[in-house]
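To close the section, here is one more complete example, presented without commentary so you can practise reading it yourself. The ligand is S-adenosylmethionine.
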Amino acid sequence: MFRGSLPSDVQAILCSAASTWGGRDIYVGCSGNFTVERALASRGDYALHGCDVTIYSSVAGAFLAGDDFRLEIKDTRFDWLAPYIQTGEGKAATVFLASRLVEGMNANGEIKNNVYYERMTRAYRAQFPSLHEKTCQKILALKMRLKSYFNGDVMEFVDMTPQDAAFVVYPPFYAGDYTNMFKKLNLIFDWDAPTFGELDDAALETLYEKVTSKSRWLFGTDTPQEKYADFLIGLARTTNRGVPMYLYSNSGEKKIVQPAQKIEVVTNARLGEGMQIGEKLTIAKLTYSQFQALRSQYMNAFIRPGQASEAYAALVDGYLIGVFAISTSPNPAQAYFPDHIYLLSDFPVAPTSYPKLSKLVLYAALSKEAIRLFERVARKRIRYLYTTAFSNNYESMKYRGLFKLHNRTEAGPSVTDPYQKKFKINYEAEAGKWTLADGLKLWKQKHGETSQYADKNYQD
Ligand SMILES: C[S@@+](CC[C@H](N)C(=O)[O-])C[C@H]1O[C@@H](n2cnc3c(N)ncnc32)[C@H](O)[C@@H]1O
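Output:
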């Protein structure tokens, strides 16, 4: 439920800065999940003060600071929760668990008319006593405690903070994000909700000014802050597609964290320039590190990498000719094609003498043999492949003919985002229409011509 916790590398940078704050009380604005406080508490004996505005953080903050928290049930459909909110930890556990219960409700509090959610809610309620007990135990076992918790606006909190204290804040990246996230919980529970302002760009600017007036300070943001450029102590981007985090502080050494992907060298021979394609098309499962190595080598650098569920090599007579990967993560195509698998990426090796080698990779991905492999991963029947091309052209040359256009949206191009292309084009194709053997034959008939300018293989 809770988004926005700090990655461990960022926590390490924060803790190293705080290690120079010698005995000062540390005030943490926008506590969220208390990651900042927990990280600090695990590395030193700090006097910590937290602050946030949501029911989720405030019920936990009150428990951690040893304060009372007024929590009542206002939606009678949830009266059955009453026995669980008798203690501080019980209240916190109930609010955390209710975050899952409200998934079955729409924004107005009406129960969603959906068999999946009805089943989930029933099962969740049946398991509630044991889930609640376990969550209470976890909360009680937490080592971190707060010296105080402020249930209110960070702007007031920073004003209340003594000038010689240390202040840390990691505000939300999008104003209003958290308010929406916890809206449904506020329909169930009555509590002393504070009034607060949204932290839009103007408010953040004021906040940073106030924060940087303290004797020791640190703040994190997803956008570089020119004004504080001299105070940049950390830049962390922990995954390839991850949002970068900029950390500014008046203490600590400069550190940079960049993603490192695990790769495993694939030693198979590859189809090369001037080589004639062979007779037997096969597919073989790749490990994730092998997939990452091949993707880094061959996939168009302007395609944003995604997380694959499984990846496969396509080989002809044992020579690697390309790679394709699938994803079973939920995606919008589910609504149109419940029995589809998402083709996350597909690319040929290069250079070769075959300008349409990328289509042979698709013939392999669409084969009966590939479908059997996909079904093992997806644990359901697969009848369609669905994929997305990002292209500056109206059609993707690679998918045209083999896939049918499902829909197309026009977005870019963007000068700042190199990944953004003019069109986002979704394609679908009936899967398993040929065997690998027939697929290779068909490809040879239709697309098997060679050319000395073959390195222009279409990848988008
Ligand atoms: C990015 S999260 C903080 C994450 C937290 N540091 C952690 O690691 O778990 C931002 C938090 O700011 C809180 N917030 C938003 N507007 C606020 C305001 N005006 N005053 C105090 N907190 C606010 C949100 O409720 C949310 O919990």
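Once you have examined the tokens, check your reading against these statements. The chain has a mean pLDDT of 90. Residues 4-6, 30-36, 51-54, 57, 153-154, 170-172, 178, 196-197, 199 surround S-adenosylmethionine (CB under 6 Å).
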